Design the sequence.
């Protein structure tokens, strides 16, 4: 057994030359993109993903319908307010030919602090010419050219006198 002790076991260490490959940015990008593409195709095949897409599509349609209804309600409310204002304008003795004009002017005065009725009252005080039944009579009259006589002489009488005088 002593022989075994003296004998050294030589270990042979084999050195393997490992070749290390260096990767470029392009190689990494290609590898990453291939993995993402594979994961994306697997993900699209998943039933839960398909259910999610259907759910999203129906909810999107519902939200679009809700927005459409809100917009139509806003437009209808605006139209109702305009009609109410026209009725109030007609009831306030606005002359017929000025009703739409007065309505637009009064609506421009309405804000958070001024309601329609107070704006109409203020406009009526500031612009009375658009309200009431004012009748303007136009009377055609000739100028008074009398020489202190009892009968007023008009331009027509003077012209007739000139023409008659020329005949004599």
Sequence:
């Amino acid at each position: 057994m002593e022989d075994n002790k003296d004998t050294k076991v030589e270990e042979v260490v084999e050195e393997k030359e490992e070749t290390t490959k260096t990767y470029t940015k392009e190689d990494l990008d290609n590898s990453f993109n291939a993995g993402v593409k594979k994961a994306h195709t697997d993900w699209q095949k998943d039933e839960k993903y398909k259910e999610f897409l259907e759910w999203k599509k129906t909810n999107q349609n519902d939200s679009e319908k809700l927005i459409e209804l809100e917009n139509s309600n806003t437009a209808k409310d605006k139209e109702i307010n305009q009609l109410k204002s026209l009725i109030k304008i007609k009831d306030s003795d606005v002359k017929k030919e000025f009703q739409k004009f007065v309505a637009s002017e009064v609506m421009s005065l309405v804000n958070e602090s001024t309601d329609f009725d107070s704006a109409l009252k203020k406009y009526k005080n500031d612009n009375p010419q658009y309200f009431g039944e004012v009748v303007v009579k136009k009377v055609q009259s000739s100028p008074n050219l009398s020489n202190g006589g009892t009968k007023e002489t008009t331009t027509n009488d003077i012209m007739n006198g000139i023409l008659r005088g020329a005949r004599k």
